[in-house]
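Quick review question:
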């Protein structure tokens, strides 16, 4: 049988969002490669999945990718998961997929949750054309340069941001793009899920009072700004 790497999407928060096909795949493979074995173990325990785990993350991705590909060519079945959502989206999983394809390994996706698509679906913004930009650069100058490049974008923009940088990113968005309407989705599918739809200045004031917690998805559509009243 030809070697196959399974790319398995996992819940972005609510453990019940794991698909039946994902459960079946994770139980049937020999090894699951994951970012944090402790984190993934919580999910596996919830579904009584006993499969062995190995770590695959940013700082060991080159060495571990070679080991995983060797496993695949030796006949082992391997699944790749991330801490949350679809592997390869703003995480090192893309490197393993690239190397696996280059070595002749087949790649099969087991689709499921994605924070970017989940946020887009509930944003109320145009979904016909969108651009996922991942995380903005951590340094101010590079972040502002990126935002200036996005200022002429004619698609809905989707960004990820961490609680530690959300205020700085919002400040730069307001300074570079103006006091635009923005959608801020936090802790999607979790108990304290919050989706705010307001101007950047209002969000900034909110996070000076409330400490930012959880993972954020930011969305805005510069085409629609003139059509939205204050």
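Suggested answer, residue by residue:
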């Amino acid at each position: 049988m030809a070697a196959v790497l399974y790319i398995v999407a996992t819940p972005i928060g609510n453990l019940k969002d794991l698909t039946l096909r994902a459960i079946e795949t994770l139980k049937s493979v020999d090894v699951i490669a994951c970012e944090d074995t402790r984190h993934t173990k919580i999910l596996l325990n919830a579904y009584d999945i006993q499969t062995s785990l190995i770590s695959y993350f940013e700082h060991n991705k080159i060495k571990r990718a070679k080991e995983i590909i060797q496993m695949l060519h030796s006949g082992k079945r391997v699944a790749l998961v991330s801490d949350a959502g679809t592997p390869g989206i703003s995480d090192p999983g893309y490197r393993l997929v690239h190397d696996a394809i280059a070595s002749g390994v087949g790649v099969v996706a087991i689709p499921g949750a994605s924070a970017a698509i989940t946020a887009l679906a509930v944003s109320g913004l145009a979904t016909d054309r969108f651009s996922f930009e991942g995380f903005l650069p951590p340094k101010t100058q590079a972040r502002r340069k990126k935002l200036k490049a996005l200022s002429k974008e004619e698609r809905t923009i989707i960004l990820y941001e961490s609680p530690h940088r959300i205020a700085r990113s919002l400040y730069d968005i307001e300074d570079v793009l103006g006091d635009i309407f923005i959608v801020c989705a936090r802790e999607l599918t979790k108990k304290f899920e919050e989706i705010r739809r307001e101007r950047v200045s209002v969000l900034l004031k909110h996070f000076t009072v409330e400490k930012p917690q959880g993972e954020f998805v930011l969305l805005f559509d510069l085409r629609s700004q003139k059509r939205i009243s204050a």
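Why it works: The beta strands are 4-8, 31-34, 52-55, 78-80, 106-110, 130-135, 156-161, 181-186, 194-199, 216-220. Helices lie at 20-28, 37-46, 61-73, 93-102, 115-123, 140-150, 166-177, 200-209.
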